[in-house]
Write a structure and sequence with these properties.
Blueprint (H helix, E strand, L loop, with lengths): L2 H12 L8 E5 L2 H11 L4 E4 L8 E8 L3 E17 L4 E16 L3 E4 L4 E5 L5 E16 H12 L11 E3 L3 H20 L7 H15 L7 H8 L8 H12 L7 H8 L3 H12 L3 H18 L7 H7 L5 H12 L3 H14 L1
Helix pairs in contact: 3-10, 4-5, 7-8, 10-12, 10-13
C-alpha cells in the first residue's frame, strides 16, 4: 500500500463526521466547496494537490451559538487553503484525523491529533495545507475576544494575537481540547433541533474565553496578571488595595479607608497605582466597573435596561459612563447590547 493510499484509508477510518445533524456543506466540487464554506467562515483560496484531486471531498458541519460555534470540517486528499486574514473571528483547529501544516508571517507548525492544534488570530495572515485532514474547529467572535482582553488587561480594545501553536500535551492545551470535545458532544445531544439556553451559552462563553486567555499571546497574559493584582512583582499593599477595589466595586470609593486597609498612606498608595498600573485609584475602580458592565451586557436578558445595570454597579452619571465605555471598548453600551441581542436572534 502506498503512503498516499495509507493516509487516505486512515482519514476514512478515523474521520467519522462529527455534528452530522448540522450539515452545511458536502461536495466533491472544489469551487462549490470554496464558495459555500467561504460564506460560513470567510472567502479563501482552495486548491487540491494535483495527484490527490480525485480524492477531493469537502464536508462542513456547523453548530452555531451566541458568539461562538463548533464546527467539523474535513477535506479528502491534500488541499492548500489560503484565507489570508480571518478578520472577524478567532479559530481553534483541533485535528481529528490526518495532518495540517500552518504558516503565518512568523511561524510554521505541523498539527495532528496527538501533537498540536492551531489557534488562528484574525489579524495574522495564514496559509494552510490539509493532508487527508478532518478537524474540529471552535470559532469565537473577534469582538467578544477583544472586549474581554480589554476588560481583563486594563487596556482599550486593540487587536489580540495569540501564539498559533497549541501543544495538546500540556495542561492548558489538554483542557481546551477536552472542552471542545465536550461542546461537540453537547451539540450532538441537542441534535440540531433544540437551542442552547441563554444561560448555558453564557457559561460556555465564559469557559471558552478563560481557556483562550490561558494560551500564550502578545504579552497579554502578563498584562492581565498585573491588572488583576495577581502579579508576583506587585507590592503587597498595592495588591491588597486592588483586591479590595474589586471586592467592593459597587460601593463608593473612600481613599482613606482603602489606604488604612492596605497598610500605607494615601500618597504612597496613589503613587503605587500609577507606577504599577499606569492609572489612578479612581481610574482603576472605573475600569473594574466598566469591565463588569461589559460582562453583564454580554449575558443580559432581552428585557435588561442599561440604566439599571449601570446604577447597580455604582455609576451615577450615565453620559460619562457611556463615554468611558466607548473609549475602552470601542462602542457604546447600547451598541454592545444590540449586537449581543442581534446575535442571539440569528442563531
Amino acid at each position: 500500500m502506498t503512503a498516499a493510499a495509507a493516509a487516505d484509508r486512515s482519514w476514512k477510518d478515523a474521520a467519522s463526521p462529527r455534528l452530522a445533524a448540522y450539515r452545511r456543506v458536502a461536495t466533491h466540487d472544489v469551487d462549490e466547496a470554496a464558495e459555500q464554506i467561504g460564506r460560513i467562515f470567510c472567502p479563501h483560496g482552495l486548491q487540491p494537490k494535483a495527484e490527490t484531486a480525485r480524492d477531493f471531498l469537502a464536508l462542513h458541519n456547523c453548530a452555531a451559538f451566541d458568539g461562538f460555534s463548533i464546527n467539523y470540517v474535513a477535506y479528502g486528499g491534500v488541499v492548500s487553503i489560503d484565507p489570508g486574514c480571518l478578520d472577524r473571528f478567532f479559530l481553534v483547529q483541533l485535528p481529528c484525523a490526518g495532518a495540517a501544516g500552518i504558516r503565518t508571517a512568523a511561524r510554521e507548525l505541523a498539527t495532528g491529533p496527538e501533537g498540536a492544534a492551531s489557534l488562528l488570530s484574525p489579524t495574522v495572515p495564514t496559509r494552510m495545507v490539509w493532508d487527508h485532514c478532518a478537524q474540529l474547529i471552535l470559532l469565537l467572535d473577534r469582538s467578544l475576544v477583544e472586549q474581554r482582553a480589554a476588560a481583563l488587561s486594563g487596556r482599550a480594545v486593540r487587536p489580540v494575537e495569540f501564539d498559533p501553536a497549541i501543544e495538546l500535551s500540556v495542561d492548558h492545551g489538554a483542557r481546551l481540547r477536552a472542552h471542545m470535545l465536550d461542546l461537540a458532544d453537547l451539540a450532538e445531544q441537542l441534535g440540531g433541533e433544540r437551542r442552547l439556553s441563554a444561560v448555558a451559552a453564557a457559561d460556555w462563553r465564559e469557559t471558552l474565553l478563560d481557556l483562550l486567555f490561558r494560551q500564550p499571546g502578545d504579552g497579554l497574559s502578563e498584562a492581565i496578571r498585573v491588572h488583576s493584582g495577581r502579579s508576583a512583582t506587585l507590592p503587597q499593599a498595592v495588591r491588597r488595595a486592588r483586591d479590595l477595589l474589586d471586592a467592593q466595586a459597587t460601593e463608593p470609593l473612600d481613599l482613606n479607608e482603602l489606604a488604612v486597609a492596605a497598610g500605607v498612606g494615601i500618597r504612597a498608595l496613589q503613587g503605587g497605582f500609577r507606577r504599577h498600573f499606569g492609572m489612578s485609584i479612581s481610574d482603576m475602580l472605573l475600569d473594574i466597573r466598566l469591565a463588569r458592565l461589559n460582562a453583564q451586557l454580554m449575558t443580559a436578558a432581552p428585557e435588561a435596561r442599561i440604566i439599571d445595570l449601570a446604577f447597580e454597579l455604582g455609576f451615577t452619571h450615565l453620559g460619562r459612563m457611556a463615554g468611558a465605555y466607548r473609549e475602552k471598548f470601542g462602542e457604546t453600551p447600547s451598541a454592545t447590547l444590540q449586537r449581543v441581542q442581534r446575535g442571539r436572534s440569528t442563531n
